Fold this sequence. Notes:
Elements: E1 2-4, E2 7-10, E3 13-16, E4 21-24, E5 33-36, H1 42-60, H2 67-73, H3 77-90, H4 95-111, H5 122-130, H6 136-156, E6 180-181, H7 186-196, H8 200-209, H9 213-217, E7 224-225, E8 232-235, E9 246-249, H10 252-261, H11 281-290, E10 301-302, H12 307-318, H13 323-330, H14 335-341, H15 347-354, E11 379-380, E12 383-384, H16 395-402, H17 434-440
Parallel strand pairs: 6-10
Antiparallel strand pairs: 1-4, 2-3, 4-5, 7-8, 8-9, 11-12
Amino acid sequence: MTVSRPTRIVDGKRVTSPFYRGKYRLKGDLKPTYISLGVRHKAVALEKLKQVIQQKELESCGLAVPMKDRELARRDLTEAVSDYLDDLRSTSRDAKYISNVGARIRNLCLVLRWKKLSDLTGESFQKWRNVQTKAPKTLNEYLDAISGFYNWLRARNTSLPANPFQTVKRAETRGNEVRRRRAFTLAEMVRLLAVSGDYSAAITLAVTTGLRRAELKSLKWSDISLDSSVATVKVRASTSKNKQEKYLPLNADAVNAVCKLRLDHVVSDEPVFTRQSMPGIWKFKSLLKLAKIEYVNACGEVADFHSLRHTFATWLNAAGVAPSVAMELMRHSEMRLTAKTYNHLTMGGLVGGLSLIPSLIPDAPRYAPGFGPERDSEKQGGTNDEREGNLLPTDSEILSYDLGQTGTNLKRGKMAPEVGFEPTTNRLTVDRSTTELLRNCAFLRAV
């Protein structure tokens, strides 16, 4: 252990520094360590070097926290959060995602009075969460934000203690959704498009491709190809939620909607939808009101713009599309999202599936007498439809069951008239016309 004032050559002359530096080598070190002491007096420099060596020995024995960790624990969280968000930007993360993460972390720091890294504890977060009225999904997003921030810090300093938020259990979201969406029925979609006007193209494209609102808003005319044998729309990786480029086919309804919107000469870089053709939240609510569609039904389910994506998934399932194909069209990473979250089944759909299993009693009617509306001598859609033998459901009922209509209330002895199911009428479908869907449902009647 020695202290000295370092020298250097400047313009051919040896210049001595006025400040002392120390030199020491601990047990096990292969080379000596030099440290700037920043003092001018030798006695003070020796005393300071002794303290440094004593602290290093305590750290090597595990009896003291390293100086680097102490400085990190005292670091201002505001500065650390800014560095974390800058790092997210450098990795090309979505701007909205970065904004949401930063807002959640700063909100926690403000409410819980977190100012230093040592203030971050799982217990304080749990106490804050216990008194919140936010949705479980939102609370989990807060947990993910602060936990990701701490993991980022720990990746840069492995001596930090384990993530204190790893032991915090996530809030249960199943059955506790604040906003439960539903799928539109075919009749509702027909009424909605009838009053949509200039917004019909965006609604049609959303319900026939499953594109999200943000993806529709970012669409450019160069992303739509109508000249090839199969019309497609390209979802660019920069605008997609999963950051993957995908080409989706367009059916006849979507092509017709796009052709009506497209001008004779369009610039490829221009957006497909503008403020005049893309409905906002309140405008979509007003369209629902005009179409006499409840925004929130009796079951508390919401019908908003994102419900069009739910409708697309439900129609794919009703049409018998293979689950793997439906997952690709929905651009989901796992089957559970497609089959559970976005697919909406009703009692009618369950009964329709149950009717396909073999009967244990020979010659038993497929549809139990008295189930559903009675059809003897009852007028259906303005006609007197009398049938012989077992009472079978009409095509409109089968389609409503398969399409997973919600909120349907069929009373015994009466049936709603068949509206909008004429074979020659063009309707919204997944990838075929209404006539083809009815033809595919005909197997339910061949019993």
